[in-house]
Here is the input.
Amino acid sequence: MTLLGQHTADELQDLVDAKDTIVSTLKREYDALAGAWQAKRPADDEDWRSDFERFSARYAKARKDARFALARASVTPLPGSAIPAEDEYEGILRALTVVRNGSYQKGDVQDLYNRLADFKGSSFAIPTAQPRATSDLDARYYATSGKVLKAADQTLDAAIERSQRAVAKSKLDNALPYALGALAVGVAFSLYQSKK
Here is the structure.
């Protein structure tokens, strides 16, 4: 969350890219196994396809809302990293994960993956779309502010050091006339005492 606790349009774009990859990988893996699954376990195949269709419909609606938010963001003068898109971001996550009573439910993305991997006999990799470097506003400002704060700290340290030297020099400069005055008074007093 990078803008006052809200995900931004750039982060929404990153999320949609990543989840599109997951959905297309699930579809591709199923298509590769569909014939064998239908032949060996037709009821399981039908159940998976039915759940995937419901999942796809949920995701398509959330993705449409996200695309609309991204289109709105693209016509504003602000960068996508400064435009909140929390509702659409959360909508994508809700479409993928059905959680009831603290546990995942049949038909969410993890369940679909698990059943597909179970039939396949092994897990399979889903490529992860990487976020763009510009999507995390807080990280950019944090990195920049760190440099600015370091420069400010160095400037302040230098100013304090100059100030301390000036004070020390000032004390010396002010002390010298007093010291000379005290010396003169001491010499005069000594001369006065010696003439008595």
